[in-house]
Structures are given as C-alpha cells and as structure tokens.
Amino acid sequence: MTHCGSDSLRLNTAGAERDEAMPVTDDGVEILPVHECWDLLRGLTLGRLVTHADGQPDIFPVNYVVQRRTVLFRTAEGTKLISAAINNRVLFEVDDHNVAGAWSVIIRGIARSLRTPEEIEEAERAQVLPWTRSEKTHYVRIVPESVTGRRFRFGSPAG
User: Fold this and answer.
1) How many CB atoms lie within 10 A of CB 20?
2) Which SUPFAM superfamilies match (predicted)?
3) Are 117 and 51 in contact (CB under 8 A)?
4) Which domain holds residue 85?
5) How many of the other CB atoms lie within 10 Å of CB of 59?
6) Does any domain span residue 10?
7) CA 151 to CA 111: how far, in whole Å?
8) Nearest to 16 by CA among 35, 29, 3
9) Whole-number Å distance between alpha carbons of 84 and 112
10) I need a labelling partner for 60 at 20 to 30 A (CA). Which of 34, 77, 87, 134 fits?
11) CATH number of the domain enclosing 82
12) How does pLDDT run across 56-80, given as a tens digit for each residue?
C-alpha cells in the first residue's frame, strides 16, 4: 500500500510503482518506464476510457487530468458512469504521434466515483474542464493497478 498525498486516500499502487528502465524490443518498440508514462499522461488532456458491462466493451473519449498518479475525469449521468459503476475494472489509454514516432500509455485500474465533500473538493482543485456545456457533476478517479507504455519509432524496417 502506498500513501499518496492526502491522509484520506490510501492507494494500493504496488503494481503501478515499478520504475525500472526497459529495453527496446527487436522490432524497435521501446518499453517506457512508469515515471515517463506519467510524464506523457500529464502532457495531454484527452484519453479513452474502456469499460465492460453486460458482456459488451465500450470505449469513451474523456478529458482528464493526472492527480497524484491517478487519472481524474468528470462526467454526467449516463452510460459512462453506469458502466464504470457496474464493473469498476477499467482500462484507460492515451496516445500521441508526430512525424518521427508515436507513443501509447495504458492504465489498468479501478474506477471510483468520488462522493465525499473532501474528495470532490480535491477533484475540483484539479480543474478538469468539460468539452461541452452540459453539466458534468460526477468525478471519477482511476486508481492504477498497472501502468504500461511504449514508444514507436517510424521508419523503414531493418534488413
């Protein structure tokens, strides 16, 4: 169990804390250390939430912020919130690319709806801004069980 910031929130992030550098694979894919994954996540604001309910997977684009090595997003009542509540085991993916290469980070974790005044106050300090004018009054925090990332270099195959 790792203590992360607030006295009111203890997170089991043992599997998400490994930070050793990983080698480049034979096909040129670089496995990223966890600290670099978090740095990349902090640099963007759009990710994809993958849920699984009623035997069917769903994927939702969400704007997010990183707060204490967790992912925080706002949502309205609806499919996204219900899916995360029915089966709180989720995936969260963020990626980006440019002319030289691309990267992808995947978090496997537990989605928790924030309910207490202290949790909501802390979430509001993160200033997760919704894209639409619809009121998004529910905060969801993804507590990671694992964080993995890969960097891909574009170019011709070796040989």
Assistant:
1) 7
2) FMN-binding split barrel
3) no
4) 26-153
5) 11
6) no
7) 26
8) 35
9) 8
10) 34
11) 2.30.110.10
12) 899 999 999 999 999 999 987 777 7
Tokens representing 42 are: 């902090």
Q: Give 102-106 contacts, CB < 8 A, sequence gap 24+.
A: 102/151, 102/152, 102/154, 103/32, 103/40, 103/149, 103/150, 103/151, 103/152, 104/149, 104/150, 104/152, 105/32, 105/37, 105/40, 105/41, 105/147, 105/148, 105/149, 106/147, 106/148, 106/149
Domain tally, the chain: 1
What is the per-residue pLDDT across 105-141, written as a single tens digit (0 to 9) for each?
A: 999 999 999 999 999 999 999 988 877 777 787 899 9
Please answer whether residues 154 and 100 qualify as being in contact, where contact means their C-beta atoms are separated by less than 8 angstroms.
yes
C-alpha span between 45 and 7 (Å, rounded): 27
